[in-house]
Amino acid sequence: GTRGAAGRGRGGLETVLYYHSTDISPTCTMVVAFARHAKLPLVFKEMSYEKGDRFAKGFLKLNPYHCLPTLVESTASEVSGAGGSREDQKAEFSLWESQAVLRYLCARFPENEAVQKAYPTDIRARAKIDQMLDYRHCTLYPLVCKATNSLLGYLDAISEEELRSRYKTMDEELHRFAATYLDSKADFAGGMDTPTLADYSIVPGLAFTTARKGYQLPARVERYVDAFLKAVPTYAPMRAGFLRKVAELAKATEDKRRLERASGSQYKS
Could you give the C-alpha distances from 18 to 29, 241, 245, 255, 262, in angstroms and in order? Predict the structure, then answer.
């Protein structure tokens, strides 16, 4: 794991963020990118999906749902390795669900300048950000996943006609997102001049759209992503890795299905 600006927070607590690869997890990426950009005093501990770290007995005590990211606060002596292997490990506080983690970090470090910009205390500004976070979670991201998951091998193959239909629905929603939330004069969602939690939540998942060769985000959404990349330099290498991983998964899925079709044809003949 790696340590942020400082490993210890208030009251002798150590705040540990367990996450897995920012190359393919938008939920982990949004929290890691925000925490690193804001230089929050966290300990970052990357877990391996392949090795099953999240199913370790100690980690399941921290989070029975074994999802990532998971934030854990405990005294320094109580924090164990990525798998949470100590039998007697006791966390004073553990939290999962990425957007809850984002909000908690803002409440935990209110004096941080980047936090103040990302989640202002003004109740109307904060309510708008909350609205956009919910919109991402309930409307936009599910459409992105529905359009792209079969191309990445997460779901069974679908017909070209169905794929076109799903991408069309997603694209229409992206245009509606641009018309509704992206002001022509402001760089970020909700007419904000600096990135908020909503942008950290929305932008990473848009990388999945590249699973279909030739697809282009609406021009206004492209400009929005570019503005976020410029404003949050810590996100740039994460996005580059994410795009590579999406391309690799899409190619591997396509190759596997081509082989399966060829094997099926040979069997039938």
Answer: 12, 19, 21, 33, 42
